[in-house]
Task: inverse folding
């Protein structure tokens, strides 16, 4: 027995070393794949991404606005998020203002672009009295998935309502464990920690299905307009996930919705570019506008083709009505939004070309009202 | 009656395996229908394979290792192993027979999973179909290379400790090799400390046997050289585990 153990151990050690050494030299190596059982982007990954949307909605409304995922009520007595039922959400409006400023070069486009950033918040569900929240872009409709501040629910006594009531009660109990009763404001370190947790959660959902509009957009919004986000690193990450979503959608040859998500990601990329152009005080380059418009048309075309194919195969009818409505609405919105690109391109085209580094004299009266840089340029010209 | 027959008869009498057999038949058919497959029906077939292999890993981690640990524990504490020793059965023969009996039914599950993948999830394209068959066979081989030695370890630990402790240790090693290394990898990328590097090298890289992603994303089979290297590595780990298991094995507590 002892000799058997010794021989086995020596042979095992030798083979392990040889195998590991060879694997280490190979391209794939022995590095961990970080995707156990291939959940990411699989059918089950897509399911998890869909299931996570309720959580994402909750995080969006509770976590991002207050940066505390579990302590949230609508009584109006907590710091930073003090709106009662039916009142406007201050933080959401701030986010909206940011988007408005980003798209301020064209009012109609700004209104449209601000709307596009609405996270997937189960608009199809019937809401109760919170539904009038004037969040601007995050049109949050409180429904049975919402787990906070539901004192005004009017349960009609049906079985489904009873289940909702019971669920809300249990979630309320869970939330009580985390409710902050300390009147002192939450510390910055705690805010950071919670923000990190939220980001992890959003990223996990995003990895499960990068072409799911709800999870992609929630993560994008978190990175770009959340009060602890919008750092250069976060903006870079927002850019990366948008590009990744587009790349993933481009491989899609069956599911139409992926191309709509790609179009929205394209719009988000434009917003980020727009932000850069605004900072530099320049107009969007006409080539870039054309690029965006053309790629958007390409996405639309693919969506239309895949949708027609789904209808022909009889698959379209198997998709739930809510999802189909959602897609149609998004498609309409994308169509209207990207029509503004034609307007912007036409406006740019009518301008006379300028010599780089010198102000365009024809534009001076307009430019003076647009940016300080242009102001300076006008002064110089005078 | 040999120890092999005694153990196998005990497993058959308990009938727990019937529950898993039914689950193997039902879950790969039902679970894919729960997913949002409507937009993309092509997701269903890989999802069947994914469910079948996922279930097999769960059964290995949750049932096989516990069975092995429990037999080690019960046969050692009830004097069965000592009885067989008096009949002239060596330690090596004893542990091999328990191991074989535990794996006999489980091997049936492996065959079942491969059959599900080949019958109900086979790609339509002939080239992809060939790759699919090869990947499934590679997966089954690498899976057994990981699971079999760990079952041996569970038996040996069972003869030393109680069943639960033996199971927890074995399952812990397996879970660490399958998932825990991911966290270590994270530390490595953050710190690059030599200690973590060493720990990483010495860790059992059981995750190499998880080929689910190759099936789900239809990546095709692993290249021959890589497959040989992974096999060598896992055989080596298996032999080391066998050596440790044989060293730990005792007929009496």
Result:
């Amino acid at each position: 027995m002892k000799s058997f153990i010794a021989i086995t151990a020596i042979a095992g050690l030798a083979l392990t070393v040889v195998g590991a050494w060879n694997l280490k030299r190979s391209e794939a190596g022995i590095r961990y794949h970080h995707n156990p059982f291939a959940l990411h982007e699989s059918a089950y990954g897509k399911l998890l991404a869909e299931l996570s949307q309720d959580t994402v909605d909750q995080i969006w409304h509770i976590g991002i606005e207050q940066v505390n995922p579990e302590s949230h009520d609508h009584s109006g007595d907590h710091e930073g998020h003090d709106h009662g039922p039916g009142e406007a959400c201050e933080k959401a409006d701030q986010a909206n203002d940011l988007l408005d400023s980003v798209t301020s070069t064209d009012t109609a486009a700004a209104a449209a672009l601000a709307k596009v950033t609405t996270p997937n918040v189960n608009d199809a569900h019937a809401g109760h009295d919170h539904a009038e929240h004037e969040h601007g872009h995050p049109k949050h409709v409180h429904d049975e998935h919402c787990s906070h501040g539901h004192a005004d629910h009017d349960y009609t006594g049906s079985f489904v309502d009873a289940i909702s009531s019971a669920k809300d009660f249990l979630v309320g109990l869970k939330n009580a464990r985390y409710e902050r009763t300390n009147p002192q404001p939450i510390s910055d370190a705690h805010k950071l920690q919670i923000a990190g947790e939220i980001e992890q959660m959003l990223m996990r959902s995003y990895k499960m299905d990068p072409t799911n509009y709800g999870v992609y957009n929630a993560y994008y919004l978190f990175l770009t307009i959340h009060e602890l986000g919008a750092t250069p690193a976060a903006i870079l990450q927002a850019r990366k996930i948008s590009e990744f979503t587009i790349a993933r959608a481009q491989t899609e040859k069956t599911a139409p919705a992926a191309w709509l998500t790609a179009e929205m990601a394209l719009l988000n990329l434009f917003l980020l570019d727009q932000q850069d152009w605004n900072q530099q005080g320049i107009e969007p380059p006409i080539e870039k506008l054309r690029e965006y418009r053309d790629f958007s048309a390409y996405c639309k075309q693919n969506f239309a083709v895949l949708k027609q194919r789904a209808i022909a195969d009889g698959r379209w009818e198997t998709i739930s009505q809510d999802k189909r409505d959602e897609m149609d609405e998004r498609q309409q919105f994308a169509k209207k939004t990207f029509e503004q690109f034609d307007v912007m391109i036409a406006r740019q085209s009518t301008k006379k070309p300028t010599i780089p580094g010198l102000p365009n004299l024809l534009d001076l009266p307009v430019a003076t009202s647009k940016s300080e840089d242009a102001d300076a340029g006008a002064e110089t010209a005078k | 009656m040999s120890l092999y027959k005694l153990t196998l008869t005990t497993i058959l009498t308990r009938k727990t395996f019937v529950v898993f057999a039914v689950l193997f038949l039902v879950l790969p058919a039902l679970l894919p229908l729960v997913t949002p497959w409507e937009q993309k029906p092509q997701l269903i077939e890989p999802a069947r394979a994914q469910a079948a292999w996922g279930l097999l890993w769960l059964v290995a981690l949750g049932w096989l290792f516990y069975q092995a640990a429990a037999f080690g524990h019960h046969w050692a504490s009830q004097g069965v192993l000592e009885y067989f020793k008096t009949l002239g059965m060596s330690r090596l023969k004893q542990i091999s027979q328990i191991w074989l009996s535990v794996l006999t039914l489980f091997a049936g599950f492996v065959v079942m999973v491969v059959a599900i993948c080949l019958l109900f999830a086979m790609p339509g394209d002939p080239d992809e179909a060939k790759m699919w068959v090869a990947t499934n066979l590679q997966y089954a081989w690498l899976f057994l290379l990981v699971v079999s030695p760990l079952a041996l370890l569970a038996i040996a630990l069972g003869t030393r400790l109680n069943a639960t402790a033996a199971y927890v240790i074995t399952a812990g090693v397996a879970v660490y090799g399958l998932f825990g290394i991911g966290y270590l990898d994270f530390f490595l990328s953050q710190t690059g400390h030599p200690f973590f590097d060493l720990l990483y090298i010495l860790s059992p890289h059981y995750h190499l046997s998880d080929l689910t992603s190759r099936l789900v994303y239809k990546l095709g089979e692993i290249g021959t050289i890589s497959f040989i290297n992974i096999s060598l590595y896992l055989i080596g780990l298996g032999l080391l585990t066998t050596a440790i298991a044989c060293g730990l094995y005792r007929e009496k507590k």
